Amino acid sequence: MTWLITGGAGYIGAHVVRAMTEAGERTVVYDDLSTGIAERLPDGVPLVVGSTLDGERVRRTLAGHRVTGVVHLAAKKQVGESVELPLHYYRENVEGLRVLLEAVAAAGVPAFVFSSSAAVYGMPDVDLVTEETPCAPMSPYGETKLAGEWLVRATGRATGLSTACLRYFNVAGAACPELADVGVSNLIPMVFERLTENAPPRIFGDDYPTPDGTCVRDYIHVVDLAEAHVAAARALRSAPGLALTLNIGRGEGVSVREMIDRINAVTGHGRPPAIAPRRPGDPARVVAAADRAAAELGWKAKHDVQDMITSAWEGWVRLHPEAARG
Ligand code: WQD
């Protein structure tokens, strides 16, 4: 099979490409390079520069590379930005997916893996979020991911396309420093940035109803997440007509305070955090029930939070050598 990886030059996408090629799958990357970086791709993987909104280019790519499966990661993913620019997010994430699915259906491609998010759950009021927990996204970003799942499943029902919607929890870490996330919009890089500036890391709210008062999340190593894509792609290949919706997490909650303590230990900075006001829209606790992915895919995360922080730090220091002073 040849897999088209949209968004394959992005942080998560490049890890998926690496895992798929290491597993012996042929891949072609389709990326508009708006945030993607071509140098992240392994030698020999073809790159088509284009938007999934460009149906003609998608059709030509599917036919030209004889694509037999798609892993769709190309999307905008900043929650705050989606509040400012909802129409842009709906266009890129929903219309971009609709155009892609139209081409996939017309070409008779049989398998489709969709990059979804725990953001579809919004503020879940449960200890462990199962795939049956009601979806109530809190941002246009989360809405576009939920609408995307609807498009994917409806297309599967109508055409027989085998589908998997993977709901990522909090993704972190890197396979190697070159593939580390270059964005500074999540907890770990935001703490790294503060430490690099010699400023205390910030905790956004310590009065949540959690054991230490700070928000609890389920962090998943990007290498494990990439392996989940390989497992999903293989499951779809061997079972036509499948429709999977799966949480991809570790099922283990870690608080912001615990994360900052561990980051301080790994980096050697040892800088006590400062308490800042709550960030609007943050749920107190979002932790996956991860057993369905294990049952359906035989996949389980192998890496812990220590691995995530250590590998992310190696990537950070590569770009910010001055940070290593700790
Ligand atoms: C984690 C916790 C912060 C920085 C978001 C999206 C989600 C997904 C992943 C998409 C929160 C706290 C952070 C800091 C802090 N995105 N924090 N100090 O908000 O759980 O999830 O990213 O693809 O859809 O919602 O992740 O890493 O931003 O924050 O206290 O300097 O860390 O308030 O509780 P979040 P995050």
Helix content: 40-55%
* Tally of DSSP helical segments: 10
The molecules bound to the chains, other than polymers, are: UDP-4-deoxy-4-formamido-beta-L-arabinopyranose
Strand order across the largest sheet: 3-2-1-4-5-6-11
Radius of gyration: 19 Å
What's the β-strand tally? 14
One letter per element, helices H and strands E, the order comes to EHEEHEHHEHEEHEEEHEEHEEHH
Mean of residue pLDDT values: 97
In short:
The chain has helices spanning 11-22, 55-64, 79-84, 86-107, 140-159, 187-196, 222-238, 256-267, 291-297, 305-319; strands at 2-6, 26-31, 47-49, 69-72, 111-117, 162-168, 170-172, 202-204, 216-217, 219-221, 243-248, 254-255, 274-276, 285-286.
Layout: helices, strands, pairs:
Elements: E1 2-6, H1 11-22, E2 26-31, E3 47-49, H2 55-64, E4 69-72, H3 79-84, H4 86-107, E5 111-117, H5 140-159, E6 162-168, E7 170-172, H6 187-196, E8 202-204, E9 216-217, E10 219-221, H7 222-238, E11 243-248, E12 254-255, H8 256-267, E13 274-276, E14 285-286, H9 291-297, H10 305-319
Parallel strand pairs: 1-2, 1-4, 2-3, 4-5, 5-6, 6-11, 7-10, 8-13, 9-14
Antiparallel strand pairs: 9-12
Bound molecules: UDP-4-deoxy-4-formamido-beta-L-arabinopyranose.
UDP-4-deoxy-4-formamido-beta-L-arabinopyranose binds near residues 215, 217 and 256.
